[in-house]
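Worked problem 6 (solution included).
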Amino acid sequence: MGVADQEDEEYHEYVRSALPALRRLAYVLSQDGHRADDLVQSALVKLYLRWDRARTATNRDSYARTVLIRVFLSERRTGWARRVVLVDHLPESMVTGPDPAATLALRAALATLPAKQRATLVLRYYADLSVDETAEALGCPANTVKSHTARGLAALRRLLPDESYPTETRSGR
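Solution. The predicted structure is:
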């Protein structure tokens, strides 16, 4: 087996293990299963093309997550989402959790946020990344992450006034 074959096998093994988490993250960002699949596919192509760099990264999951977020943000900048409308409303889906109605309301409100605010909130509170980890994934300063977090949470509070949210954001994480 040659070096290229070993690298390909290593890539395939990594994708098999990381695919479920990448797809969940893409779904939370895009709010659509088909778009999530497209985002993950685009991210995996980019990851494969940069596998020599990714395979030596100290945290491959972080590297892959960053690629996925950048694919999502790039798509939002190109205007594809404004030109193509796949559905006129969010689909009804099975949601496991304490309150399915609140989860759907939160997802619908999250979908109304600008792409960077949405990506910031998803990374901070869904992927449970710190401010610095989120800044690295988004390629921006930590203060920008804090600003996007504050604005995004304020927008969600306006859109969902009946929900109870933490009064403070995490400062160290």
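Discussion: Residues 99-173 form a domain with the Arc Repressor Mutant, subunit A fold (CATH 1.10.10.10).
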